[in-house]
Design goal:
TIM Barrel; two-stranded antiparallel ribbon; 353 residues; single chain; alpha/beta; binds ligand PBG; binds zinc ion; 43% helix; ten-stranded mixed beta sheet
Length: 353
């Protein structure tokens, strides 16, 4: 039975109908906001590639965490910019390291906000690689020892969950074992299970964490973006090794992987809406090409629709604010003239040519 009996537009005719039949709900409870801790005090310095996100000294980080919690966001993903870098990332596992000190401060002042820590040596090594380098190659098993020390130090500082990000073979097993041995058998692990070697991370390590590589690339451990069967194998192994939450990263170019991951594994699934994805939308909005808020909500909703349960995103605060103002239909309410002007101008130019 088709047209004219079937008219799918019937349920699209006003916002109340559309809300009623909406299949995907984007909510503040889906968001995890990355935060960046630096040494010092009174520092709140905007990260130029990620406008609206900051390098925060611990006093300001605590203030930011309060605001984040007050917006209804339940978790942050914490990164640290160390005071000293060396070949073996020693500040990464020091009890006096930037992340350990930041976690302590956060848990003692804003205890009801979940603090997830990124466990990877690359912000702490002089060469920017995710572990120990031997003959120019990222040594797997020696680097696992490093990851174990970092994870345990984060747990001891009070982290609620650790997120191993190096894409080394066996990293979940190594970390689970180390945590259990130290009495942290109840501390969950969020694995960067299918993490691709992507140029979309450039804004993050160039300006977010100042950890650009001094040589080489990360293609011997992060995944080739041509592959998705392999992503399923990576995820299956992480699950076997005891991961609690799986992740696909980046997010927007990888919706097929997100969809498959949810279908095949029915595990809690996180996606990382990475720095380059944020920067693209931000840049296009600044050029007047795209409506920032509307595109942001469309992008985040697409991640939920593909199967994500939670979204790590630099948009978390803005999206939470919009959602709390109940402005799902931002594109209707934001005057389009402003956005459309540059487009119209260039159309006119074309016509007169
Ligand atoms: C590793 C890590 C990276 C990102 C998050 N954790 C960098 C990398 O793997 O090269 C990138 C996140 C982003 O681009 O937003 N510490
Ligand atoms: Zn790394």
């Amino acid at each position: 039975m088709g047209f004219p009996t079937r008219r799918l537009r019937r349920l699209r005719q006003n916002q109340n109908f559309r809300t009623l039949v909406s299949e995907t709900d984007l909510s503040v409870h889906d968001f995890i906001l990355p935060l960046f801790a630096v040494w010092g005090s009174g520092i709140k310095k905007e990260i130029s590639a990620l406008p609206g996100n900051y390098h925060l000294s611990i006093d300001c980080l605590v203030e930011e965490a309060r605001q984040v919690r007050d917006l209804g966001i339940s978790a942050i993903l914490l990164f640290g910019i160390p005071g000293v870098k060396d070949e073996c990332a020693s500040e990464a596992y020091s009890p006096n390291g930037i992340v350990q000190q930041a976690v302590k401060a956060l848990k003692s002042t804003v205890p009801d906000l979940l603090v997830i820590t990124d466990v990877c040596p690359c912000e702490y090594t002089t060469h920017g690689h995710c572990g120990i380098i031997e003959n120019g190659y990222l040594a797997n098993d020696r680097s696992l020892e490093l990851l174990k020390k970092i994870a345990v130090s984060h747990a001891e500082a009070g982290a609620d969950m650790v997120a191993p990000a190096a894409m080394l073979d066996g990293e979940i097993q190594a970390m689970r074992q180390a945590l259990d041995e130290h009495g942290f058998e109840n501390l969950p692990i969020m694995g960067y299970s299918a993490k691709y070697a992507s140029k979309l991370y450039d804004p993050f390590f160039k300006e977010g964490t100042h950890s650009a590589l001094s040589f080489g690339d990360k293609k011997t451990h992060q995944m080739d973006y041509a592959n998705s069967d392999e992503a399923m194998r990576e995820i299956a192994l992480d699950i076997e090794e005891g991961v609690d939450i799986i992740m696909v990263k980046p997010a927007l170019f990888y919706l097929d992987v997100v969809y498959r991951a949810k279908k095949e594994f029915q595990m809690p699934l996180a996606v990382y809406n990475v720095s380059g994805e944020y920067a693209m939308i931000d840049a296009a909005a600044k050029m007047g090409r795209l409506d920032r808020d509307a595109i942001m909500l469309e992008a985040l909703t697409s991640l939920k629709r593909a199967g994500a349960d939670m979204i790590i995103t630099y948009f978390a605060k803005r999206a939470a604010t919009l959602l709390s103002e109940n402005r799902r239909e931002v594109s209707v309410r934001v005057p389009l003239e402003e956005v459309a002007t540059p487009l119209k101008a260039s159309n006119r130019e074309l016509q007169t040519r």
